[in-house]
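To the team - 2-(butylsulfanyl)adenosine complex, inputs and output below.
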Amino acid sequence: MADPEQRIRELRAELEHHNRLYYTEAAPEISDAEYDAKFRELEELEEDHPELADPNSPTRRVGGEPIEGFEQVRHLVPMLSIDDVFELDPATSDTPEAELIEFYQRLRKNLGRDDIAVTVEPKIDGVAVSLVYRGGVLDYAATRGDGETGDDITHNVRTIHRVPLRLEAAGEAGAGVPELLEVRGEIFMPNEAFARMNEERDEAGLATFVNPRNATAGTLKQLDPKMAAERPLDFLAHGFGAYEGDALGGEDDFTALLESLAIPRNQPLIAAATLEETLEAVGRIDRERHELPYATDGAVIKVADYEERRTLGFRSRAPRWAAAYKFRPEQKETVLRDITVQVGRTGVLTPVAELEPVFVSGTTVSRATLHNEEEIERKDIRIGDTVLVEKAGEIIPAVVKVITDKRPDDAEPFSLPDHVGHRCPSCGGPIAKEEGFVAWRCGNFACPAQAVSRIRQFASRKALDIDGVGGIVAEALVRHAHCRTPLDLFDLDEEPLAALNLGSEEEPRRFGEKNAAKVISALGRARDKPLDRWLFAMGIRHVGESASKELARLHETLRDLPESRVLHGIRDATRLEAERRQVSPRNRDNPPADDDSKKARQEKHDELKREIAAIEDSLAPFEVSPDVGPAVADSVTAFFDSEAGRHVLERLAELGLDPKSANFLPQPAEADPGEAPLAGKTLVLTGTLSVGRDEMKRLLESKGAKVSGSVSKNTDFLLAGEGGGSKRKKAESLGVRVIDEDEARRMIEG
Ligand code: IVH
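Output:
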């Protein structure tokens, strides 16, 4: 058998070669099956010979081990930016052309010539990256960071198929591969792949990305390269930093070098010899940019000759030989035919403009999100209006403004709640707008628009951990009408669950017996999960993990929540406080009209103040942590007051479920504090106790005790656990009684 080391080397070179033919040249020479066979052979050999591992092996492209954190890399040559960005300023009506001409004239002056050869290319809206190749092998990849140092993102960049891991010169072996090459370029997500990914995410009930740039930046920030391997990232080169190799005279030589090394480069790269040609090239890119596979909002103009670049030099962080020109987004007029309201997976109601189809920036636009009611009010958008439409960042359609001259006489201001008859368009449930938020939302636990995301939340690991119920399964359960709400999961039978079709009608895919059995047993375990997990699982707004824990500390079972003294107290205090501020005679936004009104308001104010103080006093012993603040109290009480919340309680009762708290601490006795078992006693804690210090402190205080931090002659007892040296000595010297936990608990029980 061949020498494994040699075979591994051969396979790596072959696979990298075919990878390049497939991804960069789009001219594959072998079938997918042949490629896979070689890939598997390499995988097996690498498994058998861990000593021959190589981070640049093609097998690493599927994502190796996650990294622990980002290492910082100092760039060999600083990564500069462009200062000269010509943007249209609507206030001055200056055109970017004028600034571009100025830039060219500066070049003329500094170089002492009229015609300066430049290149013009699209500006890629991506994430800047530096790829360092030493001896033709990818050494590392780094983000721009502050231009001096960036994050090492090699683990993620390796998964991008068009980034060569090894450079292979087109000519004879080894010749023409530079000793050192720091390639500069952009990582981005191609528009089409981005749109497809967002669609898939939306269908799976996952959050979608705002634009390709955000999606790219988010992916590169991941520690686990498997994520990057699954995302459609791409790379294009547009420059270089450090370089040791055959001399490069200008952009032509560099382009030829990239071609020969099969490093994908940004195109078109238009050569322009005069100012006229430069303006013409910028115009051409503006016209053709919608055809490009990536998002772009401008063109970059660079002096072509490297000697001339050196002459021009730098101004602080930016070269004098480069400028960027920002295109005005194309805007078109069209008629807003209607406004529809969509219910998102979290219940947010989003108004959407239904437009007379219009061709903008390369595609036909017929819908645009209007974000929320406030945005509509601000722009005073009305049904029937003629509006100006553009594609924000050249990707996402947006309504810029209304052409008021063209407004029909009968157009009325738009009100979102009126438009939907104050009901959720998906389920007919009540809608509400929370104070301080712009969005209207549907709070119905059983709203079908939210069903998939609610089931996913319910089943997620940190909630009830129903292994096997992820996005695809939740989606299929809702689609095939097995579940409308998360609690319907408990009605599932194993057989129909096994037959659940996760695929399509044409290509069915059964969930299967084994998976179904797993889900049923996980549901059995979920019944006994503690209250905090259940609360988190319900996806009540503002109730995350820590709020759930704190709510479970304050309540013994789920059924205590609807009547919760603490939650109602917090909610009432918040409302009274708002009212107090409003009536205060010192309220500058609403000053009293006269002395009588001032006096009346002062009285009302003082009364409210006393009421608030009384509520706060009654809440004080609970020491509610900030995790359960006004927003949580409001949201939880509103939930259990709503039809959906009552439905949840009913269903739980039918299922014989009342989740119990695993961290409940008895609430203070309602009786006169004088009767509490430890009333008037001061305790100090020391050493290790069976529960945390905070927890013990709360327990003692709920029994009327005062817990202090240090021992003095006023201390009644020192509660000492394991250890606890100095406080114990001090207590002994002062004659303070030292008790252990058992004794303390006996005292508590009275
Ligand atoms: S050349 C001295 N060409 O835009 C910098 N940059 O502010 C020369 N960018 O961070 C940069 N597309 O990452 C150049 N075709 C292109 C570009 C491009 C995008 C980014 C670049 C830089 C920023 C310029």
